[in-house]
Specification:
Elements (H helix, E strand, L loop, with lengths): L8 H20 E2 L10 E4 L10 E5 L16 E7 L9 E6 L4 E6 L2 E5 L4 E7 L5 E9 L2 E12 L3 E12 L15 E12 L2 E4 L4 H8 L5 H7 L7 H14 L1
Antiparallel strand pairs: 1-2, 2-3, 3-7, 4-5, 4-8, 5-6, 6-7, 8-9, 9-10, 10-11, 11-12, 12-13
Length: about 250
């Protein structure tokens, strides 16, 4: 006799939930050791992105030392955009690690790293219901170093923010009893435009920035009538939105 013939409605509901969870895990992850000496490596399978393709990932729980610095403290539902143009059909709980330039995915309470080489970008919906979009592209002066840019304005001109994050070593001087015994992490925002598929860094000094923006339609008119702090994200966001209306 089929076991479910005698199941109560609650038991049947629990079995369905367990089965659904199992199917999700099969789609997302193949938890297998690739090597007996390297038990910290696992395989991530995103069936809706790369059917049947196992991609090497890393289980963060097994790292001896976790040095991370997240843009958002919480996990948010998000979507993955792959380099081949595919978009994930499922939503995943994601975090963006600024320090390591990595996207983490939460699978059943365990954090895994998605290989950045597969990603064109990702998006998350924050606690206010606002979608935050990120694209992966090289820095202008480091073509072999792709990073994630936060897309603040999208249009003919895209306004991008790069969260430059660095780890600073301890600087304690015993003789002076000064400094810090601990490593520190610093993060600052750098601003860029994407124009005709090219990413350009926005100068921060007034004269250089005005000369830079003179190449774009509507820029000089806006600057004649508005004071723009080229180091302030909100000012640049309004400026780029105006220029997009002029193109």
């Amino acid at each position: 006799m089929w076991p479910c013939a005698t199941c109560t409605p609650d038991q049947l509901s629990n079995m369905c939930k367990a089965l659904g969870k199992l199917i999700l895990l099969v789609f997302l992850i193949l938890a297998a050791e690739a090597d007996a000496q390297r038990s910290d490596q696992h395989k991530l399978v995103m069936d809706d992105l790369y059917p049947g393709e196992a991609v090497q990932s890393y289980d963060l729980r097994t790292r001896k030392k976790i040095d991370q610095y997240f843009l958002f403290a919480d996990w948010y539902k998000g979507t993955l955009y792959m380099k081949d143009g595919r978009v994930s059909e499922n939503e995943y709980y994601l975090k963006y690690d600024l320090l390591n330039n990595e996207v983490n995915v939460n699978i059943e309470g365990s954090p895994y790293v998605i290989p950045s080489r597969l990603l064109a970008g990702f998006s998350i919906v924050d606690e206010y219901g606002v979608e935050q979009r990120f694209i992966r592209a090289p820095l202008p002066n480091a073509k072999n170093r792709p990073v994630f840019f936060q897309e603040e304005v999208k249009g003919d001109l895209d306004f991008l923010v790069y969260h430059k994050t660095e780890r600073l070593p301890a600087n304690y001087v015993a003789a002076l009893d000064a400094g810090s015994l601990d490593q520190r992490v610093t993060s600052k925002e750098e601003f860029f435009l994407r124009w005709d598929k090219e990413i350009l860094e926005i100068p921060t000094k007034k004269k250089a920035a005005e000369k830079f923006f003179a190449q774009f339609p509507g820029a000089e008119d806006y600057l004649d009538e508005n004071r723009v702090n080229f180091k302030k994200k909100e000012d640049l966001e309004s400026f780029v939105k105006f220029m997009n209306q002029s193109i």
